[in-house]
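Review form for a predicted model. The reviewer records the input and the model, then writes brief findings.
Reviewer: anonymous (R2)
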Amino acid sequence: MSSLSAPTVRVPGGRFKPDPPVPARDVARADRRVRRATGVLAALAVLLALAWWVDGGGPAGLLGGGTRAVAETGRLCGLLASLLLLGQVLLAARIPLLEQAFGQRHLIALHRGTGIASFAGMVAHVGCASWAHGPAGVGRVPAGFWQLTWTWPGMVAASLGTVLVVLVVVTSARWIRTRLRYEWWHLLHLWGYAGVFLALPHQLWAGREFTTSPSRTVFWWGLWIAAVLAVVVWRVAVPVLRSRRHRITVAAVLPEGDGSVSVHMTGERLRELGASAGQFFVWRFRSGRGWPAGNPYSLSAPPTARSLRITVKELGDGSAAVPNLRQGTRVHIEGPYGRLTPRTRTSPRVALIGAGVGMTPLRALAEKFLNESADVVVVHRFTREPLFAREFTRLARERNLHVVASPGRRRAAGSWWGADAGRADDLAALRARIPDIAVREVYVCGPGRWTAMVRRTVLGAGVPERRVHVENFG
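Model under review:
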């Protein structure tokens, strides 16, 4: 037994109770099958597009050189950019099957990677097409772009869509994104959907890979319609229907440590949401003019049939308004999301490692795992005041939760421990505090760079990659 007042705790050895609720390993296998199937379908779509480009004389055009080679290069870049744009939309559509199989961290990484590649392809497509159709001279590309915009079907909408996509890409650059308030960045990012759906139809009307046979037309229109439906269903219709059905309202707003507050909410038939400890929702509190801008917050306690709880720290306009919420405020929800859940656990021993407000989902997971008779150790990094100090102390006293506190600033730029770790390297410090770390299921949550350091240390301690689950906040 331990409390947050003790900076280091050695977890005792000994026997552990069997843990019947541990999910069967077929959960992990099922998720792997979904990931593989998604990769196979994506590869087949790319191969099919390439086959149609080859069938349409693409390689011959490239070998012919000159203007035709430039045009064929632009055509190929446009095809691949189209597929990647639609894939990017599907990755961000919050499709439950993909959410469970990949998790938010991997989906965001894939979304970002496909976004960069699709943007590069789109720029190359526009540049090559403009050069190929423009008059000879210094202003060939601008003149060609102007001519295409006003003479080809759908090009006015495509040009506007391109501008919107460029705006999203520019504001997604790290050095700009970190300087924008989340609410503004989120609003700008939503315009990316409009940009995609304005940019693609011109290909469906004018591109010969899209129109030369009924099968090709059905494929491209079907893919485009699937992307639209995914967004409409999972980002709009389902959240609206769930919010109306469950009638969630604010019950109380209570202060927590480290400048955070917990929002306690009540609702109807909340178990039907299928939410689990460790997951998050996108919340919209119907209070003030900015309520349509949703904010993602994790559950900080296991959900029940009548109650939900989140814990929020002020990081932007939306979170700054949370402490002033009034009892009875209506709440709109989107979710649940996230793979940092008990369904991924395959070991009766668990380690939860978090920093700052990243402790929010881990606090919920700690109670959930203790309810399942798991052996749980929590590593809690904090700078000034520990979050959930009283609750962790109570769980340590009453439920045999083991808590390792690591207070203060990080001891060095390349370390994720506080000064309490002394001169030992991160791996030695971790093994000293959790000797059996290699046999535990590990859940990590905190800032992106910090979680990356923790993940490397945990893997170095011998924990298999399949038993390391990471979620970032920021």
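Findings: The first helix runs from residue 26 to 55.
Further findings: Residues 28 and 466 are 8 Å apart (CA to CA).
Recommendation: see findings above.
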